[in-house]
Amino acid sequence: VGTAGDHPEFPVQNLPFGIFVPQNDGATPRAGVAIGDFILDLRETAASGLLNTAPLAQAALAAPQLNGLLALPPTDRQALRRAVSRMLSDEGMATVLRPLLHPSATCTMHLPVAIGDYTDFYAGIHHATAVGKLFRPDAPLLPNYKHVPIGYHGRASSVRVSGGSVRRPHGQIKVLGADEPVFQPTERLDYELELGIWVGEGSSAGSPIPIGVAERHIAGFCLLNDWSARDIQAWEYQPLGPFLAKSFHTTISPWIVTAEALAPFRLPQPARPAADPTPLGYLRDDADQARGALDIRLTIALRTARMREAGLPAFTLCKGTTQDLYWTPAQLLTHHASNGCDMRPGDLFGTGTISGPDDTAPGSLLEATQSGRQPLHLPNGESRTFLEDGDQVLFSATAVREGYASIGFGPCSGEITP
Ligand code: MN
Question: Is 126 in the active site?
């Protein structure tokens, strides 16, 4: 299809699934797949019977959300991927497909699934260390960190797709030295760079997911911004953990980049330092250790209102990598289901903030500014400790490997409003 062959994000090797609305009047949300600068309408393609080599997937594509597609065994999702790939690579199909292709720039993206549950982990060890250091310089990581994947139950209702505005939340804030808390807009609004994990095939209550088969329950990945109000968080988080400081908004990139598309970009899980404990048996699997980690490059950029008015581009604040995760996606899923909690298709996990070692790639402003003590200086003369109204935060991600087509995730952005 056109120049999709060398598209930086969506060549035919990617084929991420999403839900979109074409520009035409009266159009309703439907399944689509990104190809180059276009979206192929999968609902209409399926309705035309063009995907009958993947019958179960073809049926699932009639729905306005992708939960049904994610619920299928990976073999059915893979059959769909093969059928779409064949079709888009077949020049004889060009006339048939032309009316089913919409320029992406004219389409509106929606959440890809109805998210039942959203869980946020804390698997970025350098983030956990840097944040711990702010509070406990001598013992930044708590004793449980290297044994148990830490997480909390997030709020699914406020997960929103990239591109919207992010309203600065009000909350209870107790300023250092004050006797009483006040209720006011957060003054320490932050972002958190995370990878999102989409649960595919679910599990039944009481049935843990063994680590050896966990990968088949992960359908794909997205980018995730776990917006955080640090002053609200500091006052409310003990003893039960994050609550309203996190639940006001979470932004995700719109496309489900499939496990299949990311297969060439798997890596061995980095070896643990000799002093670290070996994970307990239920989290240990040779195949997962050999290829369960992901090699995805992550970028955070900031564009302030003044930069936009002056026509200046976004300024890159951070270049990170998913190799800085202490646990693999399979370990996170297996741990989550290990108590018998049932997983459902379309459940969303955040990995936790991904930062580089020793402040090299801070995945949040909390780290980049040492909790507001060291302002960030921007090239246009502005500075930031935390986000201001009008600031746009843009995450992007690409997977790159010699000999393979690079693939991207699409945008994960939001603009702060009062
Ligand atoms: Mn988080």
Answer: no
Ligand 1 centroid to 354 CA: how many Å?
9
Q: From the CA of 393, how far away is ligand 1's center (Å)?
A: 16
Dihedral angle of Cα 325, 327, 333, 339, to the nearest 10 degrees: -140
369-383 pLDDT tens trace: 999 999 999 999 999
Q: What percent of the chain has pLDDT over 70?
A: 99
Asked whether residue 25 carries a pLDDT value surpassing 80, the answer given is: no
Mean per-residue pLDDT of the chain: 96
The answer, yes or no, to whether residue 395 has pLDDT greater than 80, is: yes
| d(C-alpha 240, C-alpha 70), whole Å | 32
Residue in 254, 45, 86, 80 with CA at minimum distance from that of residue 160: 254
92 CA from centroid of ligand 1 (Å): 47
Among 405, 400, 359, which Cα is nearest to 267's? 400
Q: Is 373 helix (H, G, I), strand (E, B) or coil?
A: coil
CB neighbour burial string for 318-336, b if at least 16 within 10 angstroms, e if fewer: bebbbbbbbbbbbbbbbbb
pLDDT of residue 1: 54
Structure tokens that stand for 401 in this block:
């490997």
Identify the bridge partners of residue 182 per DSSP, sorted by sequence position: 173
Per-position DSSP letters for 269-290, written without gaps between them? PPPPPTTSPPPPGGG--HHHHH
CA distance 299 to 293: 18
Question: What are the start-end ranges of the E strands in 261-410?
Answer: 266-267, 293-294, 297-303, 315-321, 348-350, 376-377, 383-384, 392-399, 407-408
291-339 pLDDT, tens per residue? 999 999 999 999 999 999 999 999 999 999 999 999 999 999 999 999 9
Identified catalytic residue from 127, 217, 335, 336 = 127
Per-residue pLDDT band at 70 (split at 50, 70, 90): very high
Distance 228 CA to ligand 1 centre (A): 8
Spacing, Cα 154 to ligand 1 middle (Å): 9
Cα(296) to ligand 1 centroid in Å equals 18
Q: What element of type H or E holds 96?
A: helix 94-97
Q: Is 313 exposed, middle or buried (0-12, 13-18, 19+ CB in 10 A)?
A: exposed
Q: Are 302 and 393 in contact (CB under 8 A)?
A: yes
Strand ranges for 140-243 from DSSP E:
151-153, 159-161, 165-167, 170-173, 182-185, 189-190, 193-199, 218-225, 228-229
